[in-house]
Automatic annotation (TrEMBL):
Protein name: NAD(P)(+)--arginine ADP-ribosyltransferase
Superkingdom as given in the UniProt entry: Eukaryota
Top-level taxonomy: Eukaryota, Sar, Alveolata, Dinophyceae, Suessiales
Organism: Cladocopium goreaui
Length: 324
């Protein structure tokens, strides 16, 4: 199905994508949604911009890995879980402490300044609107990077600036179990199957971070998590800490009114097949694979792999806005 054009609770494969291939694609419909701790630093208002040529870049070291957690932060509750654009929200004011929220237009303007991006087709939950939201999130403008960094860093200033877009993306992942794969339901279905994710960790720290993912441990990744479908492999999104993720939860069998579930997104440019998991998805470490010594581009290093299984999908605290 045609869709408009996306982090594992630490750093996402999507972030690895843009780090290694930083070309901005100025188009709308390049993705298909597959059918059926420390005090955070102040918010940087200038969006991330791609620079230089990726072919001349050394391997990018990503520093977004955070200690494992099993709880939702208070800032996330205030700015994401309890936020709705339909509430009488005050205008955003910088802090400290920050208050209010930006509206959707103000939220996306630093990343999509062209007026055409300010036009949103359909109502919330419609196929056309979901298509547009996917396009805006997945393009290499730095939007997805800033959204997930703010969530992981628990940066309330940034969350209040980006709350409208975070809300829209979560709506793309919201399903009513009784309507999954039904005529009155959505035009896509939740993802089930195996997917892959790679993180790039500084060589001196990778063993320390890999040790956090001990067999049997349970945790949530607080931000949106991007993965690759198994059939496409991880390259070029592989890192030195890789994950094989099994998602076997069937949302249609859950006894809840609504649930946030992963969806599969196919990009027409680059041919990658991605899976986007909602924030606060809960995982369990099933297996710690043996460390492999891998040589790539004349560089030899240790690569750690963990097998994860999804054990719980996040459930909305408030009724959704989808009208299917």
């Amino acid at each position: 199905m045609a869709w408009g054009r996306e982090d594992m609770g630490t750093l996402t494969s999507r972030q690895l994508v843009t780090s290694r291939r930083r070309s901005v694609v100025p188009a709308v419909a390049f993705v298909a949604l597959c059918a059926f701790a420390s005090r955070p630093t102040s918010w940087v208002s200038r969006p991330w911009k791609p620079q230089g040529k990726s072919l001349k870049r050394p391997r990018v070291v990503c520093l977004a890995v955070q200690p494992l957690t099993a709880e939702m932060s208070e800032a996330f509750k205030r700015c994401v879980e309890e936020y709705s654009p339909n509430d009488p929200n005050e205008d955003f004011q910088e802090g400290p402490p920050p208050t209010g929220f930006r509206n959707l237009t103000e939220c996306i303007r630093p990343y999509h300044p062209n007026p055409q991006w300010q036009i949103f087709p359909g109502e919330v939950g419609s196929f056309e609107r979901d298509q547009k939201i996917c396009s805006m999130y997945t393009l290499a403008t730095g939007l997805f990077r800033d959204i997930n960094k703010c969530i992981r860093d628990d940066n309330e200033d940034g969350l209040r600036r980006l709350a409208p877009m975070i809300w829209e993306i979560r709506e793309v992942l919201r399903f009513e179990p009784t309507k999954v794969c039904k005529p009155e339901g959505r035009k896509c279905k939740p993802f089930m199957g195996k997917c892959l994710r790679g993180l790039e960790i500084p060589e001196k720290e990778v063993e320390q971070w890999a040790a956090l993912y001990k067999a049997g441990s349970e945790f949530v990744w607080p931000a949106f998590t991007s993965c690759q479908l198994e059939d496409g492999g991880l390259w070029p999104f592989d890192g030195n800490l890789n994950f094989e993720i099994e998602c076997n939860i069937d949302p249609s069998k859950l006894a809840v009114p609504e649930v946030f579930a992963p969806v599969s997104i196919k990009r027409f440019i680059g041919g990658s097949n991605e899976v986007l998991f909602p924030p606060q998805t809960k995982f369990r470490v099933k297996e710690e694979k043996d460390v492999q010594r891998v040589t790539e581009n004349d560089e030899t290093r240790d690569v750690h792999t963990r097998v994860l299984e999804v054990i719980e999908l996040p459930v909305p605290q408030a009724p959704g806005e989808r009208r299917r």
